[in-house]
Amino acid sequence: MRILLITPEFPLPLLNGTRLRNFHLFKRLAQRHDVSLLSFASSEEMSLLPSLREFFAEVHVVPRIHRRSIRDYAWGAFSRVPFFIKRMHSAEMADEVGRLVSSGKYDVAHVSDLRMAHYLVPHSDQAKVIDACDCLSLLYRRAFFATSKLLDKANYLQLWIKTRAYEASVYPEFDRCITVSETDAEELRSSSPTLRLRVVPNGVDTEHFCPAPTEQASESDFVFVGTMSYAPNADAARFFALQVLPLIGERVPSPSFEIVGRSPAREVLDLQVAGNVRVVRDVDDVRPHVWRSTVFVCPLRFGAGVKNKLLEAMAMRKPIVATSLACEGLMISPGQDVFVADHESDFARKCVQLVEDKGARTRLGTMARLLAEQEYSWWKGVDVLEDVLAEVVESSVRAQTRRDPREVFRWVADGLER
Questions:
Q1: 3-class secondary structure, 181
Q2: Which of 100, 158, 346, 359 is least enclosed by beta carbons within 10 angstroms?
Q3: Residue 51 lies in a domain
């Protein structure tokens, strides 16, 4: 197949879940098919072109746009289209999509995430697949109920309403919609019952994310990893530091907590005032920090999709305590592969148990590694994705079942212009 992959950002460097998913799935798919990339990129990222050309047949680049002014945020409050869609809109990208699609070179276009969907809506003759990754309306709904701040609630409410309407309008214009988990797929079905959905699971590179090559001296009792400007991660770090760690301190003398991630928000940096919390920002490799911890924690209270950080910790054979939401979409047996707890007192109790019981840490870590090896190879996701793309290419029902795209495009375009 000749595949055009359209992404909001380069697959490299591997800074977030979207990049990670696109890199691992399409690097492998390119071994079997002809894959070309069209992406936004910053000037700094242009140095990565040689690496991408090692597996992409063609790489087409549009300069990344930046919209973060007060006017743009104010626009987002009154538009029917979510602000994060407006922020990604570029006339140059629309022209480049049109040029490549009209060339007739590609059997199928694969679009990565909701932010890029509107570029393909007008092209009704092009077979196309949208990777929703996570259901964003589910994320915003959970965020609305998780926060207690009035302004945050108002913001999440309008994002929830607008995103749900936008997903329901745009996703049906694609021949298939894929997600990372059945939970995300079910949420999308609730607003679009006829949506043609498939789950393409994430994986983990078990050779890269491996157990520590040598015995590591523990530098922290607990570690949490993630982009710390991302609201669910920042909330999780605060929840553990402020509500769980003090309870652990009643049983474990001076417990330490290390937060490792890019761009930590001020509210995360401020956690260091306690003395036993350390924030490590913008590291190139998180593995040494995870290896040198006693327990990996994933205390997420809202979010959506599959948590790559959890798969990576499992592959590194670390004992893990996580919330049930953090484990969502994974084939985890609570108590066997991962300790699962949602209330702060239960979370603290299970953390203490692992700190005090080396045997329990070894058993839990061993089972987690085994699960990652057996069930979470990236090739499993590649096989499913390949089937989805082949089905779309071979299908003849596309033009018969889709609405007139001009109707949807007018709805989207009107929202982008307002």
A1: coil
A2: 359
A3: yes
pLDDT digits (tens, 9 = 90+) for 122-156: 999 999 999 999 999 999 999 999 998 999 999 99
In a domain? residue 215: no
- Please give the residue range of the domain that contains residue 31: 2-203+378-417
Q: How far apart are CA 153 and CA 320, in angstroms?
A: 31
Same domain, 99 and 241: no
Instruction: Please indicate, yes or no, whether residues 291 and 146 belong to a single structural domain of this protein.
Output: no
Q: Which one, of 355, 367, 357, 354, lies nearest residue 317 by Cα?
A: 367
Are residues 386 and 366 part of one domain? no
CA distances from 204 to 6, 133, 327, 375 (A): 22, 16, 15, 10
Residue 319 in contact with residue 360, Cβ under 8 Å?
A: yes
Encode burial over 257-283: b for 16+ CB neighbours within 10 A, e otherwise: bbbbbeebbeebeebeeeebbbbbeee
Rounded to 5 degrees, φ, ψ at 316 are -85, 5
Q: What tokens appear for 415 in the block?
A: 């929202």
Total residues belonging to the chain: 418
Note the pLDDT tens digit of each residue in 298-335: 999 999 988 999 999 999 999 999 999 999 999 999 99
